[in-house]
């Protein structure tokens, strides 16, 4: 038994939840902030058999991997036009930090 | 030293807190949602000596074990009387998912 | 790789966050309540190399160690003057409870 602890961005949180449920994994989501990832984030705890860890990691990677996103520029309100970029820009979004912890004992009551 | 991580239903959370305090265990409660248990839940972290793990598990079981609860039917408002069940029904409540994690080092400052 | 889990008082939480960032450690903060420490608290998860654990523990100790704080008495409103203490008193504040957990596998996506 392992406990997979994954910190992911809020924007990927729903997709990851759904993908885990569809693959029949049970996860608990903890409210978390800052740190590993700059944007708002969530921490998932997923209990898995040893031979399912790779599958769980694949699901996290598929739903949360760091990637570029094209963001349309926002027109500056009330001046400061100097900093206005008049074309879409690539921004890094997503990403996951994952710890696989050993479990000495697992119980369900 | 072990770190006991227990996900329990919100409705059992206060009873578990009180029982742990009475038995002189120190616990931290994390806000959590969904996953292991369908209803709203809380995640307890309890640091214990190795020889106290069984006692802590007994306390969690005594306060959170999955059980049937007789729920009185709610009278349907504004029709849909077809789905009305005119007698109390058994509903599963409670339950706990517990991971006992090894601890390499423990410090209090 | 280790996962350092530290429960600290809310009042020390910002200082600890800043000190960890300044030392280039990445931490995630979980909302937590009660238990190990009486006042409101926060739980930090910090992933570190094995040989950085001592440094992280030093940072936690420097920012969160239990200490005395001189608290000015609050003038009683509307009576109960019997319990009024007309001089500053020492109150214990701060403190940290820290678990260093072994990590089987660490991934960033
Ligand atoms: Ni195992
Ligand atoms: Ni031990
Ligand atoms: Ni290691």
UniProtKB/TrEMBL annotation, chains A, B, C:
Pfam families: CdAMP_rec (PF06153). SUPFAM superfamilies: GlnB-like (SSF54913). This is Transcriptional regulator. It comes from Anaerobacillus arseniciselenatis.
């Amino acid at each position: 038994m392992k406990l997979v602890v994954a910190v992911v961005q809020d924007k990927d949180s729903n997709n990851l939840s759904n993908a885990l449920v569809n693959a029949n994994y049970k996860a608990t989501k903890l409210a978390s902030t800052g740190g590993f990832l700059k944007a708002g984030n969530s921490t998932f705890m997923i209990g898995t058999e040893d031979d399912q860890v790779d599958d769980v990691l694949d699901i996290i990677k598929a739903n949360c991997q760091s990637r570029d996103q094209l963001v349309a520029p926002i027109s500056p309100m009330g001046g400061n036009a100097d900093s206005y970029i008049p074309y879409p820009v690539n921004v890094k979004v997503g990403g996951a930090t994952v710890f696989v912890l050993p479990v000495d004992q697992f119980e369900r009551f």
